[in-house]
Specification:
By secondary structure, this protein is α/β, with parallel strands linked by helices. Helix content is about 45%, strand content about 10%. It contains 19 helices and 14 strands. The strands form 4 sheets. It has a 7-stranded parallel sheet with strand order 6-14-11-10-9-7-8, with helices on both faces. A 3-stranded antiparallel sheet has the order 3-4-5, with no helix packed on it. Helix 2 packs across helix 3. The radius of gyration is 33 Å and the shape is globular. The relative contact order is 0.11.
């Protein structure tokens, strides 16, 4: 390019010389820093980024472990080392400003050909300035690329994972048992109970149940009044799935050895995942001791809430969302962050690739849909009484907390509906709660995730309550087991 042409007394400066040794990929950074308006905007962005970096500097991790973890830090450090005003080549006007910024005192015009040269023959190298300018511009572009990638991953969320079990090849189909379930509900409402006394019923609670003193209590009392033996599994609700699976296995063996009766399991939420893990991992030891498994509102395929909170590479990494969840679960709840991580789609896929429920095991899975009406969002019904540890060291006392669970579940259900277009009970989508090969119950009544274990304050007396709902699920499970047993006997004959 010829730099000798001028217009209105102003010299025209080339952006890139054809034989200046620069590679073609540096063209965009040079263009970015060659326009004064963009240069001012980049300077302002650098100052803002530097400020944000200082605010979140303690949360940064080495770039070797996180590909985008140091975009802001890198850009800010480049901005402090290199003066963007002093290293760019203006596209028009007198080049004396560039000469002053590089401490070159001369009145002679400058010529750019890979070096800055005065007309009297003296020259000085500007390669370092050009390289630093290109690196600064490339770092600036990498910031935008990293932020765009994080934003894309954050916005996309769990859209590709929800319902993955239904799309997985080789999975057995489900059978719709909703009609028969409603018939059993009607029989129970009229005083006809079909649960046999020849089995022991084990209720497996879900996540955070250790801090809910009323979790499953009413259902256990209801079963005991009917003369049925019922237990609540004593597990740490915030422990990992594999740890709870081992404890459930030991609990089943203890019940069987003490009563000589087979066990029928009903797991709610994560409790269903824990119970299914116990049967899939230890089926050889438990196949003669277990009669069936019912899962109510369980994230068998995974949970979008858990995945969206813990997924790496999101914008939330800048404020350490995962660290906040670790503090809540590990420090406040005295649990293990693995309990929540085990419910992510990634962990569920990994677990189910290695562990499958046995085909001969009778399984019933149930999911519901929460109401998202404005009336529910504003109500304080379905109140949960939680107990959290006090902050004083060494004190065993508990701090009671009242949670408007109905309103919280309605808000979460509305969020999942708007973001993913998925129906849910507030925490678990309907598609992720269906276990392949199971008899599925899909009630039309609007029930949120906490309704199964926490009785509402203003529940409709004309409707079935949570205890009767659990009885109907287990009654259906008994029928499924009897049908499977009859089919096997016919096959052998």
């Amino acid at each position: 390019m010829d730099a000798g042409n001028s217009k209105d007394g102003e010299s025209s400066t080339p952006l890139v010389e054809s034989n200046d040794g620069l590679r073609n990929e540096r063209l965009i950074p040079q263009l970015f820093t060659s326009v004064p308006a963009l240069n001012e905007a980049a300077s302002y962005l650098a100052e803002t980024t530097s400020y944000i970096t200082r605010c979140f500097g303690d949360f940064s991790e080495p770039s070797s472990s996180r590909p985008y973890g140091q975009e802001m830090v890198t850009f800010a450090s480049q901005e402090t080392r290199v003066s963007m005003v002093g290293t760019h080549m203006p596209s028009s006007g007198n080049l004396s400003s560039a000469s002053e910024s590089t401490n070159v005192a001369t009145d002679a015009p400058l010529i750019f050909d890979g070096t800055l040269r005065r007309s009297d023959g003296d020259s000085f190298q500007s390669s370092n300035a050009v390289i630093q300018s290109a690196q600064t511009s490339q770092n600036g572009i990498s910031i935008f690329q990293g932020l765009i990638e994080r934003a894309r991953k954050t916005v996309r969320g769990s859209a590709d994972d929800i319902g993955w079990l239904q799309r997985a090849p080789g999975m057995p189909p489900v059978e719709d048992g909703t009609e028969r379930f409603m018939e059993i509900i009607d029989d129970i409402r009229h005083g006809l109970h079909k649960l046999p006394n020849s089995m022991v019923y084990l209720l497996v609670p879900g996540l955070f149940s250790n801090h809910g003193p009323l979790y499953y209590v009413s259902t256990k009392t209801y079963f005991s009044k009917m003369g049925l033996t019922c237990h609540i599994a004593k597990i740490h609700s915030e422990a990992s799935v594999e740890k709870n699976a081992k404890e459930i296995k030991e609990c089943i063996e203890e019940i069987y050895w003490g009563s000589n009766k087979r066990v029928l399991l009903l797991g709610h939420s994560k409790g269903g995942v824990d119970a299914a893990a116990a049967l899939s991992m230890y089926w050889t030891d438990l196949k003669d001791k277990v009669a069936g498994l019912a899962l109510a509102q369980s994230p068998y395929g995974g949970s979008p809430i858990a995945s969206d909170l813990l997924r790496a590479g999101q914008l939330g990494d800048y404020v350490n969302v995962r660290k906040l969840m670790e503090i809540l679960i590990c420090k406040v709840m005295k649990g293990d962050i693995q309990s929540l991580e085990d419910l992510t789609y990634e962990k569920r896929k990994e677990f189910l690739r290695k562990n499958h429920l046995p085909r001969e095991l009778p399984v019933v899975s149930c999911h519901t849909e929460a109401s998202i009406s404005p009336a529910v969002l504003a109500t304080l019904s379905r109140v949960a009484h939680a107990e959290l540890p006090t902050l004083s060291a060494g004190s065993p006392a508990k701090l009671p907390v009242i949670i408007p669970l109905g309103a919280a579940m309605a808000a979460c259900a509305q969020l999942l509906q708007v973001r993913y277009g998925e129906k849910s009970d507030g925490l678990v989508t309907c598609r992720d709660a269906e276990v392949p090969g199971s008899v599925v119950v899909r009630p039309k009544r609007k029930l949120d995730h906490g309704w199964m274990v926490y009785s509402p304050l203003n529940d409709d007396p004309s409707e079935v309550d949570a205890s009767q709902f659990c009885e109907a699920l287990l009654s259906l499970l008994v029928e499924v087991g009897e049908k499977r047993s009859h089919e096997r006997s016919m096959k052998y004959e």
